[in-house]
């Protein structure tokens, strides 16, 4: 029988999951396909970090509540690898609202290209050459991080690398548990 909260059958991670206070607001904008994937990490991030809101992207009907938040906030930034964007580290402020597209890279590009309202946002990117530790999906290009790692990197940019340690340690444990559970056994 699986855990009602984390969904794992052989290895519950609920007790190990941290809740980290966030000095910024984070919006996860999900591609509809992402919500059906077992390997999604956005929902995991949202359960570990405060001040996270979640919306589903639609090409024809942008989330009205999110559009209003962006308008009222005045300092919303789209975190997306782009030549037009500034490095995240140089644009950190106390009143930040980051929008992260939670999707495969191909889907994220489509979301941006098909959404004029996203294109209008100031863009920032991670100035990091680090490789992802995320091993649950194939065809990961060097330098591409999963959504959980992006959230951790934003936290580190705001408060230093040590502040993200709780998230990073938990994520490493989560990846091991996921693989073990998928293989049908308990983690040693």
Written overview of the protein:
- The protein is of the alpha/beta class.
- The protein is 33% helix and 14% strand.
- It has helices at residues 42-48, 64-73, 105-113, 116-119, 147-159, 165-183, and strands at residues 25-30, 52-56, 76-79, 86-87, 97-102, 122-125.
- A six-stranded parallel β-sheet has the order 2-1-5-3-6-4.
- It is globular.
- The two termini are 19 Å apart.
- The mean pLDDT is 89.
List the keywords.
188 residues; alpha/beta; six-stranded parallel beta sheet; 6 strands; globular; S-adenosyl-L-methionine; tRNA-uridine aminocarboxypropyltransferase activity
Give a brief outline of the structure.
The protein has a domain at 22-124. The chain is 33% helix and 14% strand. It has helices spanning 42-48, 64-73, 105-113, 116-119, 147-159, 165-183, and strands at residues 25-30, 52-56, 76-79, 86-87, 97-102, 122-125.
Reported for the largest beta sheet, the result is: 6 strands, parallel
Mean pLDDT: 89
SSE class: alpha/beta
Which strand order do you get reading across the main beta sheet? 2-1-5-3-6-4
**Structure summary, number of beta strands:** 6
- How much β-strand is present in the residues? 5-15%
- CA-CA gap between termini: 19 Å
Number of helical elements: 6
What level of helicity do the residues show? 25-40%
Cα-atom Rg, whole angstroms? 16 Å
Low-confidence stretches are none
What is the string of SSEs from the N terminus onward?
A: EHEHEEEHHEHH
Shape, please? globular
């Amino acid at each position: 029988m699986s855990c009602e909260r984390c969904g794992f059958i052989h290895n519950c991670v609920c007790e190990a999951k941290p809740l980290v206070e966030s000095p910024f607001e984070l919006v996860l904008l999900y591609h509809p396909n992402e919500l059906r994937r077992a390997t999604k990490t956005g929902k995991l991030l949202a359960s570990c970090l405060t001040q996270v809101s979640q919306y589903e992207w639609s090409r024809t009907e942008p989330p009205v509540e999110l559009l209003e938040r962006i308008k009222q906030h005045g300092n919303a930034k789209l975190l997306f690898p782009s030549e037009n964007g500034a490095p995240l580290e140089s644009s950190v402020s106390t009143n930040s609202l980051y929008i992260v597209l939670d999707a495969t890279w191909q889907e994220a590009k489509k979301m941006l290209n098909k959404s004029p309202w996203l294109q209008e946002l100031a863009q920032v990117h991670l100035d990091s050459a680090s490789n992802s530790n995320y091993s649950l999906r194939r065809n990961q290009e060097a330098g591409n991080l999963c959504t959980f790692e992006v959230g951790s990197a934003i936290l580190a940019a705001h408060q230093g690398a040590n502040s993200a340690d709780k998230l990073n340690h938990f994520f490493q444990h989560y990846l091991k548990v996921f693989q073990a559970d998928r293989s049908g056994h308990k983690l040693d």
